[in-house]
Description:
Elements: E1 2-6, H1 13-21, E2 34-39, H2 43-52, E3 56-58, E4 61-66, H3 80-85, E5 90-97, H4 108-139, H5 146-160, H6 169-173, E6 188-194, E7 212-216, H7 218-225, H8 229-238, H9 245-257, E8 259-264, E9 269-276, H10 281-288, H11 290-294, E10 296-303, H12 304-310, H13 313-319, E11 323-325, E12 335-341
Parallel strand pairs: 1-4, 1-5, 3-9, 5-6, 6-7
Antiparallel strand pairs: 2-4, 8-9, 10-11, 10-12
Helix pairs in contact: 1-7, 4-5, 12-13
Amino acid sequence: xxxxxxxxxxxxxxxxxxxxxxxxxxxxxxxxxxxxxxxxxxxxxxxxxxxxxxxxxxxxxxxxxxxxxxxxxxxxxxxxxxxxxxxxxxxxxxxxxxxxxxxxxxxxxxxxxxxxxxxxxxxxxxxxxxxxxxxxxxxxxxxxxxxxxxxxxxxxxxxxxxxxxxxxxxxxxxxxxxxxxxxxxxxxxxxxxxxxxxxxxxxxxxxxxxxxxxxxxxxxxxxxxxxxxxxxxxxxxxxxxxxxxxxxxxxxxxxxxxxxxxxxxxxxxxxxxxxxxxxxxxxxxxxxxxxxxxxxxxxxxxxxxxxxxxxxxxxxxxxxxxxxxxxxxxxxxxxxxxxxxxx
Length: 343
């Protein structure tokens, strides 16, 4: 999963990036992009590893991407910034909600709208170019897809009205449009970057409607990310932080994108795998290897909680909580799966 960090100048994007990736500050060159990969914290993987004592324990990972030349508002005509984040799975919009010398009063709603307008303009350019190309093809005798034209027409209508495409789940899910990687269609998490002493969301009238919002005190979290485990515990208690920004943002990102984890276990390896919610067992098998999907026979499934209650896989089998499922079984978060296949 790749998450792109965006926002207006002085919103604290770099500070957020460093807090989430536990990285040290860059050299200050805004022309250069920064990438940080973190392990997704999951206590279930730790407990499974303690139980099986495998040779390898593999967590899922998240990649945070901070594009270079990040002054979005100062260069609306320069679309390079948006080209950089088109391949991201979701966007983290850092919004200033702190005061400072020489800064205007925070205006979260206005800032969200300002960035949304840039995303919308960028998408509108793509839609209009594609519609022009389809019209040209039609004049040359090629028959365009009526479905694609209808979908692009709906996109143009929404974008002309300055509504981001993420508000239309059916458009987001349309396979015909996936190749366009529309920016305003990507899931977006609004990170309100607060003052050090402020851990509350602003009032409803200051928040954008219908958006997923959460608070981060980026400067504090940046300091926390550089501390030892013992220092971090004291710091968390002093500032009433119940979980680090990394943990909270990852959890919220999974929820926003409709993602879950399932596990494979054994003496060789305990591993977490990330899939979309409501994925069929046969498609979950493909995440591990295409041959497993091709030769899929059955999925032997045990819920994580049932394994913990039983104390061992053998005991869970005796209790009857290990079950065989077919191709169309919808994988549930926390499922431990052994795929039976033959190729």
